[in-house]
């Protein structure tokens, strides 16, 4: 996650302190190019629409992951919750109930809503 940042530190330090290119520069360029390639691939991926039917395997995996996170009382970031709920393709009322329960940290309620969907 921090590969580019970590690779840039010795290069920046060498430029700043020694006024020369660091020995790590080729490794930095490789990580930079990999990052650019990854970002380009993410930009080119088609967005998943909420109206698309849920893939059975993806929906089941999302349900298991969400339940596991809820039962472990893990913090659930909004983007991750949205990803799981998108995969489940729940009715809007059920989706809203789960989001509200998670926002209130009422994971038991969220589990109940999810298990009864």
Task: Describe the protein.
- With 117 residues, this protein is mainly alpha-helical.
- The protein has 2 domains: 3-44; 56-115, no CATH class.
- Helices cover 72% and strands 0% of the residues.
- It has 6 helices and no strands.
- It has helices at residues 3-18, 25-44, 56-71, 78-88, 92-103, 107-115.
- The longest helix has 20 residues, at 25-44.
- 12% of the residues are buried.
- The mean pLDDT is 86.
Number of domains: 2
- Largest sheet report: none
Number of beta strands: 0
User: Count of helical segments?
Assistant: 6
Q: Which strand-content bin applies to the residues?
A: under 5%
- Class per helix and strand makeup: mainly alpha
Instruction: Give unreliable regions as ranges.
Output: none
**What would you report as the Rg, rounded to the nearest angstrom?**
21 Å
The proportion of residues forming helix, as a percent range, comes to over 70%
Based on Cα principal axes, name the global outline: elongated
Taking the alpha carbons of the first and last residues, their distance comes to: 35 Å
Summarize model confidence as the mean pLDDT: 86
SSE arrangement, N to C: HHHHHH
């Amino acid at each position: 996650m921090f590969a580019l940042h970590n690779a840039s530190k010795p290069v920046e330090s060498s430029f700043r302190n020694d006024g020369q290119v660091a020995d790590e520069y080729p490794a930095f360029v490789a990580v930079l190019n990999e990052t650019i390639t990854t970002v380009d691939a993410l930009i080119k991926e088609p967005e998943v629409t909420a109206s698309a039917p849920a893939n059975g395997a993806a929906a089941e995996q999302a349900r298991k992951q969400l339940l596991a996170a809820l039962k472990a009382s893990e913090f659930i970031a909004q983007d991750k919750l949205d990803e799981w709920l998108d995969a489940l393709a729940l009715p809007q009322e059920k989706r809203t109930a789960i989001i509200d329960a998670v926002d209130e940290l009422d994971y038991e309620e969220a589990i109940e809503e999810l298990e009864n969907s």
